[in-house]
C-alpha cells in the first residue's frame, strides 16, 4: 500500500481515466491540459508517483508510461498529514522490533541492545529518532524503563 496526498491522487485518478484512450503511454501535455494545476505542481506530483512506482517518466520525450496504476493507496490531506502518518508507522514498526528484542532477552532487554536494534537494524534510525521513539513509547506506557544494579533495561 502506498500513501499519497489528495493532489497526487487527483493526478493518479486522471491517469486511470486517460488509460482507456491512451492504453500504453500518455503525453505530458495531455495531462497538463486536463488538470487545473500549475506545471510545477504537476511535475512534482508525477515525480512522486514515479518514486512510488505508479508510473515511469520519460523526460526526453515528455511521455508518461503506466507501471501499476491499480496499486492500493491511502489518501491523506497534505504533506504534513503524510509526515504525521509516516511517523506513526515508524513507531509501530519500531515497537514490533522492540517486542522481538525483549522476547529474546526473557522480558528485559538492555538499553544498548534495544537502541542498537533500532539504530542498526531494519529501520536504520538516526540516534535522535531512536531516542524520540523510545521516549514516545515510554510516554504512551508501551515501554517501561527498569534500572537494575548492572544497568538500564526495558520491558513491555
Structure description:
The protein is built from six helices and eight strands; from the N terminus they run βαβααβββαβααββ. By secondary structure, it is α+β, with helices and mostly antiparallel strands. The protein has two domains: 2-76, Orthogonal Bundle (Arc Repressor Mutant, subunit A), CATH 1.10.10.10; 79-155, Arc Repressor Mutant, subunit A (Orthogonal Bundle). A three-stranded antiparallel beta sheet has the order 2-4-3. It has a three-stranded antiparallel beta sheet with strand order 6-8-7. β7 and β8 form a beta hairpin. α4 crosses α5. The model has no long low-confidence stretch (mean pLDDT 86).
The CATH class of the largest domain is identified as: Mainly Alpha
User: What is the arithmetic mean of pLDDT?
Assistant: 86
Distance between the termini: 29 Å
Question: Could you give the order of the helices and strands?
Answer: EHEHHEEEHEHHEE
Mass-distribution shape: elongated
Number of domains: 2
Question: What is the beta-strand fraction?
Answer: 15-25%
CATH architecture of the largest domain: Orthogonal Bundle
Can you give the helix content as a percent range? 40-55%
Largest sheet: 3 strands, antiparallel
Separate helix tally = 6
Q: Low-confidence spans: pLDDT under 50, at least 5 residues?
A: none
Structural class label: alpha+beta
Total beta-strand segments: 8
- CA-atom Rg in angstroms: 22 Å
Amino acid at each position: 500500500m502506498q500513501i499519497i496526498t489528495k493532489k497526487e491522487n487527483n493526478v493518479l485518478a486522471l491517469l486511470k481515466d486517460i488509460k482507456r484512450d491512451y492504453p500504453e503511454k500518455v503525453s505530458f501535455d495531455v495531462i497538463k491540459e486536463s488538470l487545473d494545476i500549475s506545471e510545477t505542481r504537476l511535475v512534482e506530483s508525477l515525480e512522486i508517483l514515479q518514486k512510488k512506482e505508479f508510473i515511469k517518466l520519460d523526460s526526453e520525450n515528455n511521455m508518461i508510461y503506466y507501471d501499476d496504476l491499480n496499486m492500493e493507496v491511502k489518501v491523506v490531506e497534505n504533506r504534513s498529514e503524510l509526515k504525521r502518518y509516516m511517523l506513526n508507522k515508524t513507531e509501530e514498526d519500531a515497537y514490533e522490533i522492540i517486542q522481538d528484542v525483549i522476547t529474546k532477552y526473557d522480558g528485559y532487554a538492555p538499553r544498548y541492545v534495544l537502541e542498537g536494534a533500532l539504530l542498526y537494524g531494519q529501520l536504520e534510525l538516526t540516534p535522535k529518532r531512536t531516542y524520540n521513539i523510545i521516549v514516545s513509547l515510554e510516554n504512551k506506557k508501551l515501554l517501561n524503563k527498569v534500572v537494575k544494579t548492572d544497568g538500564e533495561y526495558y520491558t513491555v
